[in-house]
Amino acid sequence: MDGRLIGSMESGMRSALVPAAVAGSQTELLPRGDEAARQGGHEQSDRGGECAAPEYIAFDLPFPPSVNVYYRRGPHATYLSKTGKDFKLAVEERVAASGAKKITGRLFVAIALSSPTRRAYDVDNRIKACLDALQDAGVFDDDEQIDELRVVRQAPRGDYARVLITRAGLI
Predict the structure, then answer these.
(1) 160-167 and 56-62 as β-strands: parallel, antiparallel, unpaired?
(2) Which residue of 85, 133, 135, 147 is 20 to 30 Å from 96, comparing CA positions?
(3) Is residue 4 part of a domain?
(4) Hey, how many other C-beta atoms are within 10 angstroms of the C-beta on 168?
């Protein structure tokens, strides 16, 4: 997946989009059987062969730092730490390489986390960094757009956050 833009889906694929992804640790965030989408393909619209606007996009991002180290507090302000800057830059690079267009409107976000180690972590401490970096990379305007957020902790054999973003109400 590595940050490729995922194109529009047929309406039958919408129902298979995410529910299984949040149920088990081995599932993917992409619908099964949508090989064009897995390869970053786009469906053609009825408007002269243009690609239709994506109904969802997906990224494989680096495992996000904890919000406890993402931001630092100075005497007069809170600022982004070096760890935060490095993560934000990595996210911006993956979003730019994907050619992803901004998703507008109300959003549903699913995030599957796979830690590089077996060390315990709070999933909620990883979400803020992920969403802030995606917002700053231009994937959406404001995390206020997110109506539904699902997070899954996967087995610690990776070093990633698999993120799927779609318009709210599609699933």
Answers:
(1) antiparallel
(2) 147
(3) no
(4) 14
Contact 161, 126 (CB under 8 A): yes
Neighbours of 144 (CB within 10 A): 10
What type of residue is 138?
G
Residue 111 is classified by DSSP as: E
The parts of the chain modelled with pLDDT lower than 50 are 1-51
Q: Write out the residue range of the structural domain in which residue 58 sits.
A: 11-167
| Closest-CA residue to 60 (of 37, 28, 101) | 28
Domain total in the chain: 1
CATH number of the domain within which 97 lies: 3.30.1330.70
- Angle of helix 124-136 relative to helix 82-98, nearest 10 degrees, comes to 60
Predicted local distance difference test score (pLDDT) of residue 41? 34
Q: Give pLDDT, residue 133.
A: 96
Residue 160 one-letter amino acid: Y
